[in-house]
Amino acid sequence: MTAVLQDKTVVLGVTGGISAYKAAEVCRLLRKAGARVEVVMTPAACAFITPLTMEALSGNSVATEMFETTAQSHIGHIELASRADIVVVAPATADAIARFAAGMANDLLAAVVLATRAPVLLAPAMNSNMWDNPITQANLARLIDTGRFSTVGPDAGELACGWVGAGRLVAPAEIMAAIESRLAGAPDAARAEGALAGRRTVVTAGPTWEAVDDVRFLGNRSSGKMGFALAHTAAMQGADVTLIAGPVALATPAGVTRRIDVESALEMREALRRVAMQADVVVMAAAVADFRPGVRVLGKLSRRDAHPAAARPARTLPLVANPDLLAELGRARKGRAPLLVGFAAEVGVSGEALVARARQKLTEKGCDVVVANEVGKAGLGLGAEYNAVTMVFADGRVVDLPADRKEAIAMKIWNTITTFYLTPADASASNKSVPASAGLSPISPGKRRARRGRKGNDV
Ligand code: CTP
What we know:
Elements: E1 9-14, H1 22-32, E2 36-41, H2 51-58, H3 74-83, E3 86-92, H4 94-101, H5 108-115, E4 120-124, H6 128-132, H7 134-145, E5 149-151, E6 155-158, E7 164-168, H8 172-184, H9 188-192, E8 200-205, E9 210-211, E10 217-218, H10 225-236, E11 240-245, E12 258-261, H11 265-275, E13 281-284, E14 291-293, H12 303-306, E15 319-321, H13 325-332, E16 339-347, H14 351-365, E17 369-375, E18 386-393, E19 398-405, H15 406-421, H16 424-428
Parallel strand pairs: 1-2, 1-3, 3-4, 4-5, 8-11, 8-13, 11-12, 13-16, 16-17
Antiparallel strand pairs: 6-7, 9-10, 14-15, 17-18, 18-19
Helix pairs in contact: 1-2, 1-8, 3-5, 4-7, 10-15
The chain binds cytidine-5'-triphosphate.
């Protein structure tokens, strides 16, 4: 844990959901990290966890009522809004999110959220259908578009209401990591001047898990590190970053605007449907499973099911093809933005053969750039700290990025993309859609910084 929370004032808003009890642990961790914690509870939250518990853990009186006759007056409570370095709402119910999005101030927490100029981090928790409901998603998008709100989670899994899906409050440690990231984000001024300032980027990362039954899945060895490094370095250069993460054990990088956690390829497709077409650049770094089990067994597939006593043949697992998410985007954009950057993971293929494979994927999937890497080499690629990649562009250019830490490779990938595709004037324009025929228009060679050839490129 870093010192970023030392002496910071965190307003911890708690709304009325089953997971409200987890706010107690968040409060304890915040205190442990050196923060001053002011807890504001909605009346519904008090039905799930007592103000007394939060008072004991925060070391401060807990504000619940908008209009109190005690020394802590209404104005005093609202004053929390100006003292806060960050407002964290955990759990944030669908109802709370709706009220924040509507600009309501009908309870103390909503009033503080409306009045504060501090960043607001929401940790949503609700029934999965409520989460998936376009109304909830539109409310969240409205909040996020203000630039002040970001989210952490929710997780997918079994919910307290018995449903299975996205909607579970993320673990307190993950909320802490997101708070630290948000507070430690690059200074606004520096980000505003970054090469990606005003650009909306979507980065997918990690593996997908394709459920066989309730406990088993088909997956792959992707750690998500390359995608997370791309999300981080884009944010550091001023981009608005949506990170769509498969199941990985990584904290949200500093500066990332929103993170959507998914498990399967179909969930990733849903997340992309919500955000990809509004983006300027989509980077598909995720190792999406090409196939999923044709049937999902409820409960746990038993050894006896697979090898029944009657000596029937061992069970085979039928597989069906997953959609190719990148190719779908390539078709859907119809020559417009976003710029599409795919990855190509190849085993035992290098040099010209790697470039040829990348070029084939580029054409088949209709993208602008393919970042090819040879996976399976010791210390490089899937799961490793280092990577070495070759970028293949639709206009035929090829750029080699020799082995380096994934964060450094990510920075060079963005540098190459911005140099090839964004003129300085474009790059400084704020909230402007990227002009595109097929994605962004390549800058004419005259405008481009002189580059060396295919080998030993200096990006
Ligand atoms: N990809 C995707 N949807 C899939 C499979 C892959 O969007 N169902 C994307 C990946 O995110 C990556 C690119 O396509 O950006 C290439 O992925 P890769 O696994 O290298 O290639 P495949 O298309 O799966 O081809 P193959 O497995 O035959 O190499």
